[in-house]
Amino acid sequence: MARILLLHSMYGLRPAVHQAADRFRAAGHEVHVPDLYDGRVVDTAEEGIAIKEEIGRDELLKRAVSAAAPLSEDGLIYAGFSLGAALAQNLALGDERARGLLLMHGTSDMAEGVSADDLPVQLHVADPDTNEPADWLNHWYIQMRRARADVEVFRYAGAGHLFTDPDLPDYDAEAAERAWAIALDFVAGL
Known about the structure:
By secondary structure, the chain is of the alpha/beta class.
């Protein structure tokens, strides 16, 4: 059994996040799903960007750290969707006890000199994805490898950015099921 911290996207704590948590729980894992938006959930990217900017990146990271701190002593798997993936990456790279990092639909830049000694990392991303362009993903991959992370990248041709959320226009049922099968295997192996 693994302990997972699952962070939502800029759309807030939507039903798809709870469904993802339930997938992991059904596989025997303990999952924590903090609400970084204080109950606000939106339906459009514009609304999500407005909330994200209102709260601010530093405050969102502070809220994510506060959610992780009481859980991290025995090692967490950090996971997230898009914005939540970026936050999860920052948390995992700052936590020497992190057991793994599962990124759904997003990444984050990294500070110079970060070390991720053999941290298992798995990224699931649309191909192409305007939020995660190929040039950026290549740069991100090189940075992660330089940090000595054990990285796997899975790209889903023709899928939309948040292709695992059945309530958004980006949803792609086939890509979502494939991604979840791979992600569940990844977590089971940690």
